[in-house]
Amino acid sequence: MTSARRQLIDANATPFYHVINRCVRRAFLCGEDKLTGRSYEHRRGWIVDKIKALSAIFCIDICAYAVMNNHYHLVLKIDVDKAKSLTQKDIISRWRQITKGHSVATKYINGDALIDAEVMLLDSLLAEWHERLSSISWFMRCLNEEIARKANREDECKGAFWEGRFKSQALLDEQALLACMMYVDLNPIRAGIADSLQSSDFTSIQERISSLDPQDDAFPSLNTLAQSANKRPQTTYPSLAKFDGSTHLSQQSGIPFHFADYLELIDWTGRAIRLDKKGYIDNQRPKLLNELGITPDAWLTSAKEFRRQYSGISGRWDSMCEFKKQHNCGKWSKGKASSQALHP
């Protein structure tokens, strides 16, 4: 039996979540149908453009994304501080970019006088809209509905486009967040449809690397890029959440790692996954593995099989048990062995 979203998504427990949605039809979300020769590649751009547009409206940041042939992955962060800072006019302005809003809200924005009943209605609407603007469920609803409508119009058909409601995983600590982001960014390499991070189209890691040196077609080595990332302010890709380098989820406003360290680790991991890639074996563990106390074997297993290792929750075993207790989740045991291996 599926669980209610309120049991799986709670910004007080963690602001970070991995979400996945899969296309229901053989006709593909993206990619090329080998039976008909028809290409759906342009739909990848639909998804990337829409998640960025929604991120600018919602109080939700994009940490990582990968758009595959028949599904996509997102790692999202609920920006609680931004949500708290919204004024009433901010809430109305943002919500009117999603729907038509309400006539009472329009009167308020125009400076017209409101009677008592209208003030009460406006307060109720503002509370509802404010909550929705930091809701991953509403973010995903706005994303999936538009993509489904556009795809159905293009395919000249009706009916469900998505397999079902999106799947989500709560990422309870730094190790879980790092493993999940790496799993998402390396999707094309793991699937064998790309042989490098730079050629991993429609992924967040390709966007981040391209933003570091957009003029260089050949691209320097990732070590060079990592050194560049360590020195340069992250202002070139505002649509993605920033790496802020702090050490704990509760002490940061972005992703709690240095981007240079993330680049080093993802390059090392990608080489280990691509066994045909020359020089993939490296005796020196990346800095992040040492800092988090993760063994290389446990890390590589997680990078390849993150979705199989964990179900709706990922993190230290004691954190997952506490999350289950607080949210009255159903029975589950998936993740115990892998959690203990990845979380010392």
Structure description:
- The chain is of the alpha+beta class.
- It contains 16 helices and five strands.
- It has a five-stranded mixed sheet with strand order 2-3-1-4-5, with helices on both faces.
- A hairpin with a 3-residue loop joins strand 2 (60-67) and strand 3 (71-78).
- The chain is globular.
- The chain starts with a helix and ends with a helix.
- 38% of the residues are buried.
- The model is unreliable at 214-220, 228-237 and 331-340 (pLDDT under 50).
Number of strands: 5
Count of helical stretches? 16
Q: What multimeric state do the chains show?
A: single chain
Shape: globular
Mean pLDDT: 80
SSE pattern, N- to C-terminal: HEHEEHHHHHEHHHHHHHEHH
What order do the strands of the largest sheet run in, or round the barrel if closed?
2-3-1-4-5
Poorly predicted sequence stretches spanning 5 or more consecutive residues: 214-220, 228-237, 331-340
Strand content: 5-15%
Fraction of helical residues: 40-55%
Structural class: alpha+beta
Rg over CA atoms: 21 Å
Question: Topology of this structure?
Answer:
Blueprint: H1 5-8, E1 16-22, H2 42-57, E2 60-67, E3 71-78, H3 80-85, H4 88-95, H5 103-110, H6 116-132, H7 136-155, E4 167-171, H8 174-185, H9 187-191, H10 204-212, H11 222-231, H12 259-273, H13 287-292, H14 296-309, E5 313-314, H15 317-327, H16 336-342
Parallel strand pairs: 4-5
Antiparallel strand pairs: 1-3, 1-4, 2-3
